[in-house]
Write a structure and sequence with these properties.
Blueprint lengths: L2 H10 L2 E8 L22 E3 L2 E11 L2 E7 L1 H4 L6 H8 L14 H12 L4
Antiparallel strand pairs: 1-3, 2-3, 3-4
The chain binds zinc ion.
């Protein structure tokens, strides 16, 4: 693989991560925030003593998207496969370890999801 092909392959990689994100104290209200997978309203839940919501981050050649998840879907053992299948419209898509984003990257994007405008 030459350098150009290598870059092209990396660009097409779909990176997905999902996890609980602690809510900042001054987070905007969650009204109207619906789970991407089941479309139910997302409610904050208690996670390690803090209020948190479920969030997924999808990175692909179109860019980076941060999407809300309800607690039930977040705890689905097959996560993040359901997101990948819906997002990419492919019902048999499996997300391997190379297709998952690191916890660090997830946190950085998840924080931007609830960051208040300055
Ligand atoms: Zn859900």
């Amino acid at each position: 693989m030459n350098r150009h092909e290598c870059r092209k392959a990396r660009k097409a990689t779909r990176m997905i991560g999902a996890g609980a994100m602690p809510l900042p104290r001054d987070a905007p209200p969650l009204d109207g925030l619906n789970c991407y997978v089941c479309e139910k309203q997302v409610c904050a839940f208690s996670c390690e003593g803090e209020l948190a919501i479920g969030v997924a981050v999808v990175m692909d050649d179109e860019g980076t998207v941060v999407i809300p998840l309800c607690e039930n879907c977040l705890r689905d053992p097959s996560m993040p496969n359901p997101i990948a299948r819906k997002y990419f419209g492919n019902p048999s898509l499996e997300i391997g370890d190379e297709d998952k984003i690191s916890a660090e990257v997830f946190r950085a994007y998840a924080e931007s999801f609830t960051a208040t405008e300055h």
